[in-house]
Amino acid sequence: MNTKTNLNLKEIYNRIYNPIVRETGRVFFYIALFLEIVIFTLDRADWINPYQSMMFRVTFALFLVKCICTRYSPKEWVFIIITAAFCILAYSVNIRDEIIRAMVFVIAMKDIDVKRALKFNYILTMAGMILLAILAVFGVMGEVVSPFGYGEKSDIFMLSLGLGSSNTLGIQIWLFVALGIYLYHQRMSYLDYVLVGFGGVAVYLLTHCRMAVLMIFFSAFCGLIFKRFPDLASKKSVYVTGIIITLSCLLFSVYAAAVSTWWDRQTEFQKRLNILTTGRIMSIYPFENGGGVLSNWKMFSDPSFDGLFDMGIVRLFWWYGVLPGLLAFAAIIILYIWQYKHKDHAGFVLTLSVVMFSVLEAHFISQFISRAYVLFLIGGMWYKCLETSKETHKRHIAFYIGSLSKGGAERVFVNLAEYFRNNGYAVTMITQYRLEDEYELSGGIKRVISDLSEEECKGRVYNFFARVAKLHRVIRQTDADLIMTTAGKSNFMAIVCSAFLPTRVVVSVVADPPLEYPTKPMRFLLQTLFGDADGIIMQTDRQRRFLRRGLREEAVILPNSVSENFIRPRFSGQRKKKICLVGRMDENKNQAMAISAFAEAAKDHSEFKLELCGDGPDKDKLMKLAEDLGIEDRTVFSGIVSDVPDRLYDAYAFLLTSDTEGMPNTLLEAMSLGLACISTDCPCGGPAQIIHDGENGLLTGVRDTDGLAKALKKIIDDPDLADRIGEAAYESMKEYRPETVNARWREYFDGIIER
Predict the structure, then answer these.
(1) Which of 92, 362, 545, 725 registers the highest number of CB atoms within 10 A of its CB?
(2) Nearest partner of 40 among 168, 207, 223, judged by Cα
(3) Which residues of 559-583 are buried (b: 16+ CB within 10 A; e: fewer)?
(4) What's the pLDDT at 320?
């Protein structure tokens, strides 16, 4: 009875927090974040915003709506209640509402992709700063240059670009650098980091902001070190060092608060330290009752403690209290541990940079959530820390493709879908349409059609936007953790339609990129939109070279696996004297080249036959060619067959004569059976990726009939050579067996989901 009641309650809970409700919450979240960015931008401008308090209340309400629309587990509710009680207690004492706003924001971050939220923040904030710079240049608002303002240098004017001061501009540039490295480090080259370093020098020359240039150098140096030594990302000592540095920053700040006083009361050491920090330690003191000095720190602070000074960590403990300050540092240390477990070196560098910067500057200790980057990272972590292996939800993978017609890419998707289903994942296959002759899906895999029905179609322009809207709705309702797509426009559609959804997007290219993306607009979209994908899968090195440098760094090469039907011991008897081809009969597959080469290579070996499996528009032409060459009685057109493994198993050799191929499944399958294989070295390098010419196969030029004839004659004349090549092919294909390849796909998908 209790079990049945629990199931009913869980079902009701799931119905309340359905995908539409959760997406509504995400929409409110991004509206609130947009308003936070607007508030911050207006604060940087040379204008007093009279509506700032009201706008903060609106963003608070919107983040709260996101929380209401989010499904939390019982354990998460316990955490939320305890945290809320603590923050409300702190607010009741110090009357600073930032702590409540920060708490609601962190809780609202559940199911929000951290990198997408920070990228949204990054782009819009940069747009806002550029707008302020333009307004200053045209004399509408703000100044292009401002007085430097340090004693004898007060008559010096430095660049401020509408941000009020050169120091603010310098720090803002560092913030863009630090967040940019976090977001795009995988695409950055060594040269990019060097240019960032030179940019730091330029920032100093234009702003004289020493803190900005030091932090730019630190961020670039850390990024460069992790790029040069990627294994450091998994070293515990690196993160332990970060914790030690963080605690040292805290201890230094406590010491500074303890010794801060007037100049004539300081010891020589304290004076030197104060000079080194450009007067920041002394700046803590000159307020009523000693300002932020250690003796004024309280458990939950005091409403009258609202003075402004630069030392951020001291301000944190003075403004909000010792307990909130310690809670913040405890959260940061837990964040380091989380980053170590997930090898998130970029998040680690960003967090450490913020902590070190906050020793002497207080930009992050303010009411502006949009620049509190560490809050985003904590928000993306807290609920995951509460999960246990038993509570972790069943992962859901979706695949998006045009149809399940019997082609190579479709077979790969079906095989992957079956693999993930068999390993306990929920799997959905989203196709644009359904054809009559398709691969079948086994039970347990859901099929969804995303294209418009006849009743839904109207005008061409309307249909385009309707398709986008419907695919977005399908992806939202599917509520998958990850969606994988392939081929041309499907990649673009998946990226666009998954925007602002928690579903991670993995795009893939399986054909020759110049043919798959033939026009300049499509190539521009590829090089642009692929940057917003969570993963990029290519099948060959040549394919990857088509991407721009930044994307090239991020893309991974994952091969297709060989079908289970082709996994068997290598044939050891007398092979039949037949040469096989398998594939659609069309111009690209170019079976005409194979027929012509066979006629030449086997003219002295009448016992050999050529068997072509498949059908297509060129079949009649090929039959006519065989007749014209006088080998019609030695050429077998078997049509579409279902027993390909059996036909290839004891064959003598296999030919692939395509003009273009991605990672050809038929070649993988023939090699896995141990056949001597000859293939054209065609774009985009699939055959060359798996064949080492002369060792486990032979390569010949595209449309090089003479070259193919010579290679074929070579193995026909030398059966021992054919056997050695076939044996080497069989051994080399062990790494392409399903259990090996599929495990690599699973590891890659899991890694993206866990980011």
Answers:
(1) 725
(2) 168
(3) bbbbbeebbeeebeeebbbbbbbbb
(4) 92
Taking alpha carbons only, the member of 420, 416, 387 closest to residue 404 is: 416
Instruction: Provide the strand spans (E) within 313-451.
Output: 396-401, 426-431, 445-449
CA–CA distance, 542 with 684 (Å, rounded to integer): 6
* pLDDT given for residue 392 in this prediction: 54
- Choose among 511, 651, 478, 650: nearest CA to 571: 650
Assigned token pair, 332: 């940061």
Q: pTM above the 0.90 mark?
A: no
Helix axis angle, 488-497 to 520-529, nearest 10°: 40
Kindly state the DSSP code that residue 540 receives in the 8-state scheme: S
Task: Give the closest residue to 488 by CA, choosing from 459, 455, 522, 444.
Answer: 522
3-class secondary-structure state, position 312: helix
Q: Does residue 525 contact residue 513 with C-beta atoms inside 8 Å?
A: no
Q: Are 211 and 170 in contact (CB under 8 A)?
A: yes
Distance from C-alpha of 233 to C-alpha of 539, rounded to nearest angstrom: 26
Q: Say if residues 536 and 508 touch (Cβ distance below 8 Å).
A: yes
Residue whose entry in the numeric block shows the structure tokens 């900005």 = 212
Q: What is the 8-class DSSP label of residue 187? A: G
Contacts with 203 (C-beta within 8 Å, 6 or more apart), sequence order: 170, 173, 174, 209, 212, 213, 216
The pair phi, psi for residue 115, each rounded to 5°, is -65, -40
pLDDT confidence of residue 261: 82
The kind and range of the H/E element at 612 are strand 609-613
pLDDT of residue 668: 94
**CA 359 – CA 356 distance, rounded (Å):** 6
pLDDT for residue 5 is more than 60? no
Contacts of 189 (CB under 8 A, 6+ apart): 549, 550, 553
Q: Each residue of 583-630: pLDDT tens digit?
A: 999 999 999 999 999 999 999 999 999 999 999 999 999 999 999 999
Residues in the chain: 755
Asked if residues 644 and 665 have their Cβ atoms less than 8 Å apart, the reply is no
Residue 151: the pLDDT is 44
For range 128-149, the mean pLDDT: 88
For helices 665-672 and 408-422, give the axis angle rounded to 10 degrees: 70
Q: Helix, strand, or coil here: 439? A: coil
Mean residue pLDDT of the chain comes to 90
Residue 522 and residue 527: Cα distance in Å, rounded? Answer: 9
Q: E-assigned strands of 634-749?
A: 635-639, 653-656, 676-680, 698-700
Q: Which two tokens stand for residue 59?
A: 């963003």
For residues 319 and 94, is the Cβ–Cβ distance under 8 A? Answer: yes
DSSP 560: P
Burial 667-690 (b: 16+ CB within 10 A, else e): bbbbbbbbbbbbbbbbbbbbbbbb
Q: How many CB atoms lie within 10 A of CB 732?
A: 17
* Helices and strands counted in the chain (H then E): 32, 15
How far apart, in whole angstroms, are the C-alpha atoms of residue 694 and residue 456?
56
Sole residue written with tokens 């486990």: 696
- Residue 537, by phi and psi: left (phi above 0), alpha (psi -120 to 50) or beta? beta
Query: For tokens 């797509």, what's the residue?
Result: 485
Task: Judge contact between 547 and 537, C-beta under 8 A.
Answer: no
Give yes or no for residue 742 having a pLDDT over 80: yes
Contact predicate 417/429, CB 8 Å = yes
The residues with which 613 forms a beta bridge, in sequence order, are 582, 639
CB 417 within 8 A of CB 447: no
Mean pLDDT of 23-52: 92
Q: pLDDT for 362-412, tens place per residue?
A: 888 888 999 999 999 999 999 888 876 544 568 999 999 988 887 778 888
The sign one gets for the Cα dihedral 340, 346, 347, 348 is positive
Distance CA 353, CA 222 (A): 10
DSSP, res 151? G
